[in-house]
Amino acid sequence: MRRRNLRQRALHETPTIMTAAPQPAIPDGPDNDSSGPTHDEPHTSGVSSRLNWLRAGVLGANDGIVSVAGLVVGVAALSTDRGPILTAGVAGLVAGAVSMALGEYVSVSTQRDTERALLATERHELDHTPDAELDELIAMYQNKGLSEETARHVAGELTAHDAFAAHVDIELGIDPDALANPISAALSSAISFTVGAMLPLIAILAPPPGVRVPVTFVAVLLALALTGAVSAQLGGASRRRAVVRVVVGGALAMIITYAVGQLLGVAGV
Predict the structure, then answer these.
(1) Residue 75 domain-assigned (yes or no)
(2) What Pfam families does the record point to (predicted)?
(3) C-alpha angle with apex 245: 239 to 250, nearest 5 degrees?
């Protein structure tokens, strides 16, 4: 209590000192041990990258669910035999997983090649026109709202520390040590698609013939609701809107393929 009273007296007696002295130490203190939000900022990009991969995995599983569900429901509308349904389901699973893997491999490989080319160009410019690159970095920091003096100071210190990292960060937004791996991306897509595709395949084959399609509809829609909620949670979007969107889309896909199977059966195909 006594300490609090002394502090209150100091605040009233020396207001200019108490308000002015701490300010320079906040932005410029090199030994600042604050454990506030900035403590975790170096890890933000890593967390974001992991969330992106997880979200991509959820979306891959969603593709597997919808694709194979539509396929097996369409075949089940035409035939109640397990053989054709199993054949169509497994073929759709394998084809979809391979297609996803190849597409992801090509896409990520192209992205990585583009990033490498940009990094090589930036390194060449730094080697041959360092002054022009420094002026460019200063201008970019000014565009972000810094004064010319501050921008020049920041750009100079960053360039002295690691010119290449400073330039590729603000100009390209690329981390040279964290380029995407096309093989990992391809395997991730194939695995997530396969896991998702297994659900409708099991749901259509496990029950008796009379309830195969209804059981598959229920299982698939529940799974889609789950993947929609998870993807929305990871992306910070509305879960209700995401769930409705993905469930309606999956239901339409199964209804359309089931109707096509029925029409082919009526036509005697």
Answers:
(1) yes
(2) VIT1
(3) 125
What is the total count of domains within the chain?
Answer: 1
Residues in CB range of 254: below 8 A, 6 or more apart: 69, 70, 73, 216, 217, 220
> Could you give phi then psi for residue 232, rounded to 5 degrees?
-65, -40
Q: 170: buried, middle or exposed (CB in 10 Å: 19+, 13-18, 0-12)? A: middle
SS3 203: helix
- CA 194-199-200 angle, to 5 degrees, is 105
The number of angstroms, rounded, from the C-alpha of 189 to the middle of its chain's C-alpha atoms is 13
Task: Give the pLDDT confidence of 113-171 residue by residue, as tens digits.
Answer: 998 999 999 899 888 888 888 888 888 888 888 888 898 888 888 888 888 888 888 88
Q: What is the pLDDT of residue 1?
A: 43
Q: Residue 78: inside a domain, yes or no? A: yes
Contacts of 32 (CB under 8 A, 6+ apart): 25
Sign of CA dihedral 26, 32, 33, 37: positive
Query: Which domain range does residue 117 map to?
Result: 57-266
Of 193, 196, 151, give the one whose Cα is nearest residue 170: 151
Burial (0-12, 13-18, 19+ Cβ within 10 Å), 143 = exposed
- Does some domain include residue 83? yes
Length of the chain: 269
Structural domain contains residue 41? no
Q: Helix or strand or coil: residue 267? A: coil
Unique residue bearing structure tokens 């309830």: 211
Tokens of 166: 């400073």
- The tally of CA atoms less than 13 A away on the side-chain side of residue 72 is 35
